Amino acid sequence: MKLIDGKATAAAIKEEIAAEVERIVARGGRRPHLAAVLVGHDGGSETYVRGKVKACGECGFRSTLIRYEDDVTEEELLGCVARLNADPEVDGFIVQLPLPPHIDEQKIIEAIDYRKDVDGFHPVNVGRMAIGLPCFISATPRGILELLRRYGVETGGKKCVVLGRSNIVGKPMAQLMMQKQYGDATVTVCHSHTRGLAEECRTADILIAAIGRPAFVGPEMVKEGAVVIDVGTTRVPDATKKSGFRLQGDVDFEAVAPRCSMITPVPGGVGPMTICMLMLNTLAAARHDCYA
Ligand code: NAP
Fold first, then answer.
1. d(Cα 39, Cα 94) in Å, to the nearest integer?
2. CA 163, CA 169: separation in Å to the nearest integer?
3. Distance between CA atoms of 54 and 193, rounded to whole angstroms?
4. 164 CA to centre of ligand 1 in angstroms
5. Selected catalytic residue, list 5, 14, 52, 250
6. 292 C-alpha vs ligand 1 centroid, how far in Å?
7. Residues 83-106 pLDDT 10s
8. Do the beta carbons of residue 4 and residue 262 sit within 8 Å?
9. Active site residue 52
């Protein structure tokens, strides 16, 4: 069994990005600029946004963090999005999700200029991704594709099972694994209403779990020699940790790993790649790679 090291891969990619940024700056260009909008003080969101700002520093990007309290109105937030859309100094921006319940998340996502939507959540980017046109691909599935590529995992013609059908992970992952120019695999998507889920999973050469159910995938669900990608990151109580919790994946790692040819750990697998792909999307936005 080989461990797929997302942390080391992400570090290598960030070095590649930083080198490219220095080439851009040496040619007289300006540093890519990512803005992040954070509403409220949710612990998880704070951590993610801090990680994104830190990654900007590592890549030589400029970053701006815009904060609002939980009681921000939808109009105020839409105003902020409009300002960022119009700001020529900002190449790309994200609005950290989830937003408080009084704000219509979809309305905010659709207000973002798709040419600056480096999260890849705007319907224009989602639609272009689905038909294989240049676009910003959402960071988690893009990171998984990159891990598979860099670890030499053959996907063409293979059987891939995606567990979960969320808009940010399961659906785009399945789309990308199915498309000729990316995975070129035969894809099955499983969800909470799938019958015979364990049997479906056992058919997978590549199993991608994104359901948010700690240690849900056991060895009886995994074919001998499969490649297993664990997207799940659930905080479970752990008295041995200073924080009082640890991150648990959707896969029962200890039991499943011996059956796999390759597997991602949690933490240190998919997670670090997600932030890294946001950086790649921001670089692409600054270079106008996807849109003029
Ligand atoms: P989500 O929006 O909650 O979607 C979960 C999906 O899993 C749904 O499609 C749901 O089915 C399905 N599901 C839930 N329980 C199931 C069960 N018992 N059997 C089969 N399917 C089941 O979650 P998400 O946003 O995609 O995130 C999934 C996990 O990935 C979470 O742990 C999240 O923290 C993690 N995540 C990690 C990263 C990273 O960078 N590492 C990024 C994003 C998400 P229905 O559609 O039928 O409800």
1. 12
2. 10
3. 39
4. 5
5. 52
6. 34
7. 999 999 999 999 999 999 999 999
8. yes
9. yes
- Tally of residues, the chain: 292
pLDDT tens digits for 55-73? 999 999 999 999 999 999 9
Q: Output the ligand 1 site: residues, CB below 6 A.
A: 140, 163-166, 168-170, 190-193, 197, 210-213, 231-234, 270-271, 274
Closest CA to 228 of 196, 251, 211: 251
Options 91, 119, 230, 250, the catalytic residue: 119
Backbone φ and ψ for 162, nearest 5 degrees, come out as: -105, 120
Domains annotated on the chain, with CATH: 27-113 (3.40.50.10860), 139-270 (3.40.50.720)
Can 96 be counted among the known catalytic residues? Answer: yes
Give the type of residue at 227: V
Alpha-carbon separation of residue 193 from 74, 197, 237, 261, 267 (angstroms): 34, 9, 28, 29, 28
